[in-house]
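Thread: quick sanity check before group meeting

JM: Hey all, I'm pulling together slides for Thursday and realized we never actually wrote out the predicted structure for the chain we discussed last week. Dropping the sequence here so it's in one place. If anyone has concerns about the input, flag it before I start.
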Amino acid sequence: MSRPEQPEPFLRGCAFPAAPGVPYPRAKNDDRLPRDTWAMASIPVGVRFEFVGDATEVELAYETATDDLGYRGDGAGRAFTLWRGGRQVDAAPAVLGAGTARLRTGKDDATVGDGPAIVYLPEGMRPTVSTITAVDGSIEPAPARPRWVAYGDSVAEGWVASGPPFAWPTVAGRDHGLDVVNMGYAGAARGEMASAEHVAATPCDVITISHGTNCWSRVPHTTEMIAAGLAAFIRVVRMGHPHTPIFFVSPIVRPDAESTPNTVGATLSQLRLAMEHIATESGVGVITGLDIVTVEQLADGIHPNDEGHRAIAQEVGPIVAGAVTPASPA
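JM (edit): ok, ran it. Output follows.
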């Protein structure tokens, strides 16, 4: 399967070729990848279209594959939204099946800031965009921006923000002008070697690694297991990116897990410390996640609400952007 050609120059946040039934995968279609990881990678989280130009509106022709949004519900996205200058300019509800979405670009609104227009998808409905047409003017692809590969779990994927534009990597990328490739896999990211190889093979300017909580619960790890796994993951990624800045973001607070041993005897606090230690030894930057999000900023005791995602973006974003953007003269 291939993606429609006409929108391709506008496409951002998608580093992998299309796979059967999956137009915008967030991983390589690799038979070594766990099934739960591929299921999450099939959702086009963070995939978007960016353009510049003087058109006052754009029209997208699309087809969606489902309206079953699962655990995330409406937070997985039921509309195409257009952002510019750091705020939402317009939104168009998506329909199941074939449809069109017309969005104002903000070019005729003096209150909207400059910069490219960004169209976010109704991710959970798994759309395929066939055409993007300018209305009353013209558009062209936005200039390329530094690429940031963000590997992680459900928190990186955006659970349970109120919509796709509010996941923390998306917020940080928008704030700092970065082309984010979201490789966050809810319930699935455990530092598998196949994923490490995917990150290693993806051209980029900066990398973050932010898994760990699923290694307390879904596939329980001991501290020795998680340390060895992270060390190997970083080693593989570094082989593909010998000079690329890499940052490890340790798990955010999870009250039910912090002092509760999993089935192999490790608490999340112990796993976090083991991961921070091995990341430091491996020579990557370490961002301690424990105090970034407060308990009150957890929507369900595990995942951040919009305020929590914004807090992570405000903590991690400047560090990531600083690694690819030359410092201003004093």
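AS: nice. The first helix runs from residue 35 to 41. Residues 4 and 130 are 5 Å apart (CA to CA).
JM: adding both to the slides.
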